[in-house]
Design brief:
By secondary structure, this protein is mostly helical. The chain is about 65% helix and about 5% strand.
């Protein structure tokens, strides 16, 4: 390859043709080398696009992580706050259960102390008392009720069985209806006396013990609630650090690729300059020695064909987030971070499913329902379904996460009651009643309220 701009002076025709051939071949070789610039620029553009896509994906992953952290914090705070608010009810429930246990134990002790003797129950003599004791029935606590059933041997009529508190039912010869009724009345009287003597409120020491348990749990819940923001902030800091490391890795790879591309581009620029020099030498040689024939003209035309133009070097679009500055890992992601707020609840799928089914099957239609009413209810249901999906789907995405607009619940409830009222108006069983009119009025109030709230929310958002 010749770098000099002064053509060699040939001394004869052979030397002139050889010099011309060398210049033409040098121009062709340099042109073929320079033709690789266009594929290189296209590949470099694809590289820039890949790098931008990697940054966007990293930002999306970071945004989702921050959204998950925020939702976890909101769930934890709601759960702990609900538990704290329910401690008073929990204390009352504990006191109620403790008093019930205390009363049950007192009643059982009193019943165990009420012995079954001949003098206590009318019609029960000493012999029957001994027979009952032989069957394990000595106190009012040993049995709970009586019932009639077949005799144990299967012969004869029904006999009276005494159901023991623990164990099977037993039959004592001589105790039938006339003696079984006084026996149960004696037990009911004993239970009534025991319940009257049972404590009506907890002792101070038991109440104090329950209060200590509740206060200890309150302190634990308050400590857990105070730790929730710290835990969320630590998780956020970890996510920011991980995101910064990921961006640093991407930036390092981008710098290395950019440096390599710059070297290749500088090499192509040098080739272009050399091609210009060689073309100038060839032009000077042609001016000095003229045309050397058909083969020379054909070779020069091939060598001097224009090189395919390289595409303009336009930087690919970058992700909106830049590298952290001023030593802050979170400063660069402040603008790209999703707005705080819990995503729209999955519970909105219930009205969506209801209105979707109504759009297909109708709202309680009968044979007497007019065609225009059936079509109208289906169209209204389809419109409400489409509107709810239009509002709900973007609010589930982490980029546009937000609660449903104010008043949407009122509008959906009003539409639901309106469909029910329309079905009742066309049903002969309800058309003459006041129920359809009441539902229609409530539906209209809900729709107006929802529209007012939606309008107020829209003005607040625009303001």
């Amino acid at each position: 390859m010749i770098d000099s701009t002064t053509p060699l002076q040939a001394t004869g025709p052979a030397e002139t043709r050889a010099e011309r051939r060398r210049l033409v071949e040098s121009v062709g070789a340099q042109r073929r080398l320079l033709a690789a610039r266009r594929p290189f620029e296209l590949a470099d553009g694809r590289r820039l696009n890949r790098e931008a896509g990697a940054r966007i994906r990293a930002q999306a992953r970071h945004g989702k992580a921050l959204q998950r952290i925020h939702e976890k914090r909101a769930r934890s705070e709601r759960s702990l706050t609900a538990q704290l608010n329910g401690l008073d009810g929990k204390r009352a429930e504990r006191e109620r259960r403790a008093l019930a246990v205390l009363r049950r134990e007192s009643i059982e002790r009193s019943l165990r102390g009420t012995r079954l003797t001949a003098s206590e129950v009318n019609g029960i003599g000493s012999g029957l008392a001994r027979d009952l004791a032989a069957q394990g029935i000595r106190t009012a606590a040993d049995f709970k009720r009586v019932s009639w059933g077949k005799a144990p041997d299967g012969r004869g009529g029904d006999v009276l069985y005494i159901h023991r508190t623990q164990g099977r039912k037993v039959h004592v010869n001589g105790i039938g209806e006339h003696r079984g009724r006084p026996l149960m009345e004696w037990r009911r009287a004993a239970v009534a006396r025991a319940e009257a003597r049972a404590p009506k409120e907890l002792p101070p020491d038991e109440r104090h013990r329950i209060e200590e348990i509740i206060e200890n749990e309150r302190g634990r819940l308050q400590a857990d609630l105070a730790e929730v923001p710290k835990t969320a902030e630590a998780a956020r800091a970890e996510a920011e650090q991980l995101h910064a490391e990921r961006l640093a890795t991407l930036a390092r790879a981008e710098r290395e690729a950019a440096d390599e591309a710059a070297l290749r581009r500088a090499g192509f620029d040098e080739m272009a300059e050399r091609l210009l020099v060689l073309r100038a030498e060839l032009a000077a040689h042609v001016d000095l020695y003229g045309d050397l024939g058909f083969r020379d003209r054909r070779a020069r035309s091939r060598a001097l064909r224009p090189v395919p133009a390289a595409p303009p070097v336009i930087p690919a679009p970058r992700a909106p987030e830049a590298e952290p500055e001023s030593g802050s890992a979170s400063g660069a992601t402040a603008d790209a971070r999703p707005a705080p707020g819990v995503r729209a609840s999955l519970g909105w799928l219930v009205p969506v499913a209801f209105f979707g089914v109504t759009a297909m099957l109708g709202a309680g239609e009968t044979d007497a329902t007019p065609l225009w009413c059936a079509v109208a209810t289906r169209l209204v249901s389809l419109a409400v379904t489409a509107e709810l999906l239009r509002l709900w789907i973007p609010r589930r995405n982490w980029r546009t996460a937000d609660a449903m607009p104010g008043g949407t619940g009122f509008l959906a409830s009003g539409a639901f009651l309106g469909l029910v009222a329309a079905g009742m108006f066309t049903d002969p069983l309800y058309a003459a009643d006041s129920a359809p009119w009441g539902l229609a009025v409530v539906a209209a109030v809900l729709v107006v309220t929802g529209a007012v709230r939606r309008a107020g929310a829209g003005r607040t958002a625009s303001g």
